[in-house]
Amino acid sequence: MNRLSFHTAGESHGRGLVALLEGVPAGLDLDVTRDVDPELARRQGGYGRGRRMEIESDRVEVLSGIRLGETLGSPLAFAIWNRDWENWTKAMAHESPPEDVNPKALRSMYLPRPGHADLVGVLKYARRDTRDILERASARETAARVACGAVAKRLLREFGVRIGSHITSIGDIEAELPEEMPDDLNAAVDDTPVRCLDPDATERITASIDRAKEEGDTLGGVYEVIATGVPVGLGSHVSWDRKLDGRLCAAVASIQATKAVEIGDGVGQAYRPGTRVHDPIVPAPQKPRTGGMGRSTNRAGGLEGGITTGEPLVVRGYMKPISTLRNRLPSVDLRDGSVADAATERSDVCAVPAAGVIGEAMVALVLADALLEKFGGDSVEELRRNFDSYLGYLTERGWGERPL
User: Fold this and answer.
1) 63: part of which helix (H) or strand (E)?
2) pLDDT tens digit string along 251-297?
């Protein structure tokens, strides 16, 4: 059973979003204006975003779980209000519509979009109006995830774990990556248009996004999340549902429009011999978080056997192009079964840079859960004692023979 869990609620154009995060230990110094709101702003950035980002200016309102700047150990509840709600009060009303309502005011949609949850959702839940599905399936929900992930990131920083992300490709344009990643990855990319480390690729990507917009198309891409300072020993090999790679893959794949997940050089490793895949083990007495042993390469992406190695954790998400297209694809009208073009709404052309920020949040939530699983503790103080004791064990472990 996971120690850290979260739930979200709310529709894209409803009154707002709600996030409930349970399992955060007591005594964590947490200021939402410092620790959470900036993460929400990062999620709204990136070249190719739609007009919705101009309307919303996301902030969290704390409903429970924090007193005088510290967590209480009880569930944290946040609200993120939708400013666009004022334009949707009739269409998203909770009450039954009056008999004289103008049908156009309800903004119903009957033309499901290929690639979206529209059609499968109305079939599963016995609806006809796809708005009953798309409002919850919308990536607007990820604002609540990022709020929860921001708290997880704050907890991880207490133990020297830092998480950042960047874009490795958008469309068919791949970035050329440096030999060594910047110490502060987010600081290096957050002020660039598409959160990319390669200026030349950035220029070509923005031009490609402009072309896609002119053509009524959308673009996907690949985002990479990197966590540093992760100690060896999180996760486990003993059962399928405790393997950390599986938990990370599930978390990242759950992000809207993410269709594949890769850990380390996982995809390429399927095409290479083992001598060019596995990371040689070398003495590293200066690295206590790896148990005094390191890897001369990190092709495994910081995970072996479902357990962290202490090397940087590297997870990539592959995002498909957004399903809402101005150049509409064929569909079927749910009212009469006639052939028609799919519906379209205000949407992004490309949201891969934002997906990287959401990926950070999901990786942080999994790692924070694994940290609590390994070290326990109802308070940050207790958790720190257990963590420090473990690091001491790794430092003093020694190399002599041990009795069986």
Assistant:
1) strand 61-64
2) 999 999 999 999 999 999 999 999 999 999 999 988 889 989 999 99
In order of start, what are the domains of the chain with their CATH numbers? 5-95+106-393 (3.60.150.10)
Handedness of CA 133, 136, 140, 146 (dihedral sign): negative
What is each CA distance from 64 to 5, 70, 79, in whole angstroms? 16, 11, 10
Q: What is the dihedral of CA 85, 88, 89, 93, to 10 degrees?
A: -110
Contact (CB, 8 A) for 154 and 28: yes
Element (H, E) at 252: helix 244-253
Handedness of CA 163, 168, 170, 171 (dihedral sign): negative
Q: Token digits for 70?
A: 């510290």
Burial of 275 (0-12, 13-18, 19+ CB in 10 A): exposed
pTM to 2 decimal places: 0.95
Contacts for 192 with CB less than 8 Å, ≥ 6 apart:
199, 202
- Give the Cβ contact number of residue 373 at 10 Å: 17
Would you call 322 helix, strand, or coil by DSSP?
coil
In 285-367, the DSSP E strands lie at 293-295, 303-304, 307-308, 313-319, 330-332, 339-341
Residue 161 and residue 230 in contact, taking contact as beta carbons nearer than 8 Å? yes
